[in-house]
Design goal:
Two copies of one chain form a homodimer. Chain A has two domains: 88 residues, Leucine Dehydrogenase, chain A, domain 1 (Rossmann fold); 124 residues, 3-Layer(aba) Sandwich (Rossmann fold). Chain A has a six-stranded parallel sheet with strand order 1-11-8-7-5-6, sandwiched between helices. Chain A has a three-stranded parallel sheet with strand order 3-2-4, with helices on both faces. Chain A starts with a strand and ends in a 6-residue tail after the last helix. The relative contact order of chain A is 0.17. In chain A, helix 6 crosses helix 10. Chain A is α/β, with parallel strands linked by helices. At the A-B interface, helix 5, helix 7 and strand 6 of A face helix 5, helix 7 and strand 6 of B. Chains A, B: Keywords: Amino-acid biosynthesis, Histidine biosynthesis, Hydrolase, Methionine biosynthesis, Multifunctional enzyme, NADP, One-carbon metabolism, Oxidoreductase, Purine biosynthesis.
């Protein structure tokens, strides 16, 4: 019977920490504001947008949506991002991805001002994650993993962590953040030989492959803490993680559920980044990049 | 008895590959040129400068030194870097580090135009290593590891690689480059628990801690390929690597010696990057960043 590492207590603690900061901004006449840039009406995006709006509202953060038709040209998207950059009342921006196939996504991401890049999509933000220097925010999902591990006081120093999946949204940035905390990090992926053996060695496992329930019993052993970053739907349309929960739960020491796990923390981390960005804008108004 | 993975055949092959490219540049009226920016007279720097000049000369690459006194102010260094950036006849630049203590090294590095950053010291170059995108060159030492592994046809796909050391010069960038080649990469370091066990698991080991002969017999097993990135001096003043060569050599399958190993390949990689930068400048003259 694993301890369930639910997101709610982490979300509640973040909300507590943010409240006085948002109040202080309010006294300075600033409402922290998050732009959401969306193309088309993908159900994933709409669902995440609803969640983000609700969370923002409960915290006292404003949301400013920029919605473009799915077939809008690159120029329209770039104009929206220019507007986000130029508008001093906007402190952070979420650009929903993947973007439609006709859009040059890399080019679009680079347009966003790094100071407003609260989900770590620009090269500048990613460089700061890689180098422990520069400015910018790490991707919210990667940062959410650390928030949750810290909240539940999971030891990282000197420990072995397996990160399965090497995306720029989770795998690579979370590896760098874990390394900074003196973990010994193994980056593994679909081409790893004997993946189950590699994952079973680790004290902490971050499952971020985006493949529904691929991590079954053979990947786990007692003593492990497992973070399931996956948000997938199975053949029956049920929301599930990358971990086969029913197989893993009797084996490991601690496990994040899906839903009610990391996803909810990720939203809160984006809000926290937005508040930090608003504070930075207050400290250095009309800021350069 | 390990196979010795010496640098010379790699260097010779790189020279062969570069010769026709340098000739082609010559026909277009371009002499590929590497600036070397040095502060003071550190013996390490002088020694590396001599090696670089000799290698450059043998290939037909020009070297343009910028030498500043050790106590020169930040402004003088920045003026030199501005000159490097502005001079279209300079294609690449090596900035010797560590810089003197009174210099803001991070700020200085960022001044170099990424297109001339042939040793991967700018955030833009490091971001491109991290993201597999953007523009810029990886740090030469990291790239040299891949050149040597490829030359000796060491399999990487799916294999376990332990990278010991997490610097931005070798450990982190080489990990990203190995990951791109589908290796399973474990980043370990001074705070790793049971470091010898972790290293012994790997098929390929990159030793890059900068600590003389720290990797003794207990770190190794038959079947391993070991790259020794270290350039250290022992108590008697003898050049040695991070690996205890006498202990490792009877155990492992293949090993780079120090000297005559990776160091010499690194110099050639810097030259190759300079030629590539010159080709890029020819293709896009008066280039933006």
């Amino acid at each position: 019977m694993a301890t369930l590492l639910t997101g709610k207590p982490v979300v509640d603690r973040l909300a507590q920490e943010l409240a006085p900061r948002i109040e202080a901004l309010g006294r300075a006449g600033i409402a922290p504001t998050l732009a959401i840039v969306r193309m088309g009406e993908r159900p994933d995006d709409l669902s995440y947008e609803r969640t983000a709006k609700k969370r923002a509202e409960s915290l006292g953060i404003a949301v400013h949506p920029f919605v473009l038709p799915e077939d809008a040209p690159q120029e329209a998207l770039e104009a929206a991002l220019d507007e986000v950059n130029a508008d001093d009342s906007i402190h952070g921006c979420l650009l929903f991805r993947p973007l439609p196939a006709h859009i040059d996504e890399a080019r679009a991401c680079e347009l966003l001002a790094p100071r407003k890049d609260v989900d770590g999509i620009t090269l500048a933000s990613l460089a700061s994650v890689f180098t422990d220097g520069g400015t910018g925010f790490p991707p919210s999902t990667a940062a959410a993993c650390l928030e949750l591990l810290d909240h539940y006081e999971v030891p990282l120093e000197g420990k072995r962590v397996a990160v399965a999946g090497r995306s720029l949204v989770v795998g690579k940035p979370v590896s760098m953040m874990l390394l900074r905390r003196n973990a010994t990090v193994t980056l593994c992926h679909s081409r790893t030989e004997n993946l189950a053996d590699v994952v079973r060695e680790a004290d902490v496992v971050i499952c971020a492959t985006g493949r529904a329930r691929m991590f079954g019993a053979e990947f786990f052993r007692p003593g492990q803490t497992v973070l399931d970053v996956g948000i997938n739907f199975d053949a029956e349309g049920n929301l599930c993680g990358d971990v086969d929960f029913d197989q893993a739960e009797p084996i490991v020491d601690a496990l994040t559920p899906v839903p009610r796990g990391l996803g909810t923390v990720t939203t809160s981390v984006t809000m926290a980044h937005t508040v930090t960005a608003a504070e930075a804008a207050l400290a250095a108004p009309a800021g350069g990049r």
